[in-house]
Design goal:
The protein is α/β, with parallel strands linked by helices and about 450 residues long. The protein has 4 domains: about 140 residues, Rossmann fold, CATH 3.40.50.1390; about 100 residues, Alpha-Beta Complex (Hect, E3 ligase catalytic domain fold), CATH 3.90.1750.20; about 60 residues; about 110 residues, no CATH class. The protein is about 45% helix and about 15% strand. The chain has 18 helices and 17 strands. Strands 1, 2, 3, 4, 5 and 6 form a 6-stranded mixed β-sheet that branches. Strands 11-13-14-15 form a 4-stranded antiparallel β-sheet. It has a 3-stranded mixed β-sheet with strand order 12-16-17. The radius of gyration is 33 Å and the shape is flat.
Amino acid sequence: MKQTPAIKPKRCAVYCRVSSDEGLSQSFNSIDAQKEAGHAFIKSQAHEGWIAVVDDYDDPAYSGGNMERPALKRLLRDIEVGKVDMIVIYKIDRLSRSLTDFAKMVEIFDRTGVSFSAVTQQINSATSMGRLMLNVLLSFAQFEREVTSERIRDKLAASKAKGMFMGGPVPLGYRVENRRLWVVPEDAALVKRFFEDFVADPYVTGMVQRYIAEGITTRKGKLFSKQTLYQILNNRIYLGEITDKGKSYPGLHERIIEQPLWDAVHAILGIDKKVRGNKNFHRKSPPALLRGLVYAPSGNRMVPSYTTKTTSGGKRYRYYADLKYVRFGTSEDTFGSINAEQLEGIVVQQVLQALQSPASIQAVWDAVQATPEPTMDEAEVVVAMRNLGSIWPSLFPEEQSRIVNLMIRRVQFTADAIEIQWHPMGWQTLIGEFKPNSIGVELTELAEID
């Protein structure tokens, strides 16, 4: 008697997803319906050896437009370790609505020998026709998602053009109700004061200091910073308008600021900042050697800033200023500012001395020896590192900053000193500077010229 060959079991995982949390609190929801249909489909294929795995993979309230879904990630991990042979889904778009993401998943499925099947669409990825149908269906799914996004954007733009408030942070001076802004009198009075104070004295740092002294805070209890005040002074909502992509439309809400006061403020804002407030600090646009490395005794970060003095022919003076000082002005716990050239000179001197120390030279030489094919001998490493001081002034600021960041983790001010905290692996990392077309080559060439 001829024996029927044994059917190899196929371990099937049911994956379910819904895009929103609507209805999830019900006793029987969409996830449950998908799961029930998936398990019923697996039972109908028992003659093919299909068996359901113990665990289910459910992603409630997750978009199908990306792969950032916990259950999907868990499923892919189980596939990689060989726990799943077949994926069962209710519809193709439950797995993904993105062709790019779908292609990534298919690559994983092919590599691990896993196929998948859709309950309502009778598609099996194990066949060429099934693959064709999958790509067609996913193309329509992605098209549907993109059309829906466009419709939402168009609806938002049309609503804003009608003067409706369509979300985002509610501006100070208003509350929102039924897509419309309503004036809050006490907050509106404060906003109006900001505009009037700026016209009277357009020194925003001084304004911030006065408000701190008076205990004036935002609705969340935070201090007003200069950046916050500038945002308020430039917000056209206070003119009774709604903006969208650079265009302004008449709003349904009541204005807080009248046109003459708005014009007066923006006439001042339109003046060059250098002329309007040379006593104010601004962030420096060119690269700063110690950007992101300097800290005040309080632990506040110190940021590169500058001021320009017209009495010195427009000369720019650079500083590193306490971030809290930059944002809120002087207070008891702010450190103020430090001359940038002096501080950078001190730090560079320490870096160059450290680079020429026997310990650092030995560490770099050890790293060179550890490479598969060393390009320099010990003498060349010694000469190159000792010549770094000679070539340093000719390096571009970006190169100088890169080397400093390579070596230093933090420049910390204390009550009476400056502490430089080095990167533990800084010396070993210097090996990268001695590869072809690098600074190390320039340094050895400099030695040959000498």
